[in-house]
Amino acid sequence: MSENSILPHACEDLADIQQMLARYAVAMTRGDIDRVLAVFTPDGSYSAFGDTYPLDDFPELIAAAPKGLFLTGTPAVDFAEDRRTATGIQPLCFVEDATHAMRIGYYSDTYVRTPDGWRLRTRAMTFIRRSGAHDSGIPHAFERSRP
User: Fold this and answer.
1) pLDDT digits 0-9 by tens, 82-135
2) Is the dihedral of CA 96, 25, 142, 135 positive or negative?
3) Among 41, 45, 53, which Cα is nearest to 85's?
4) Distance of alpha carbon 72 from the chain centroid
5) Closest Cα to residue 92, out of 137, 51, 37, 58?
6) Cα–Cα dist 87/85, whole Å
7) Nearest to 74 by CA among 90, 94, 92, 85
8) d(CA 59, CA 36)
9) E-strand spans in the chain?
């Protein structure tokens, strides 16, 4: 297969992934949990604050999180040879609505092509601190309601 025959599919795949990630950012900004969940695979997870959260924890996790604007950049995406999975890194600037305080960092993602399009399988948050440190945050007040 020539590089030229792969390129149109790569452009479509990139556009699909970018739109899926845009839907995530808009849904998080609007507090629309159903649309946030829709961009993940059923076995999807989110990692931050020293823990990994399955989709079942998302409603409580998002309810406990500060509200505001999720500004995301264009992801850097690397496709696997089979073009059914990919990894990516996407920059984030979150602006809290009440104070306009900002948090910056980036997501490290894994993506899977499903019958319904590209979806997030995993998303891990890394914060960039004023000191220049990059870390996943410290455990915070979020407590799971289930054992």
Assistant:
1) 899 999 999 999 999 999 999 999 999 999 999 999 999 999 999 999 999 898
2) negative
3) 41
4) 9
5) 137
6) 7
7) 90
8) 10
9) 40-48, 51-54, 68-72, 76-79, 85-96, 102-114, 117-128, 134-135
The upper half-sphere exposure of residue 78, i.e. CA atoms within 13 Å in the direction of its Cβ, equals 5
CB neighbours of 82 closer than 8 A, spacing ≥ 6?
Answer: none
Instruction: Tell me if 104 sits within 8 A of 70, measured CB to CB.
Output: no
**pLDDT tens, 84-98?**
999 999 999 999 999
Q: Which pTM was predicted?
A: 0.87
Torsion of CA 115, 119, 121, 124, to 10 degrees: 180
57: DSSP letter = G
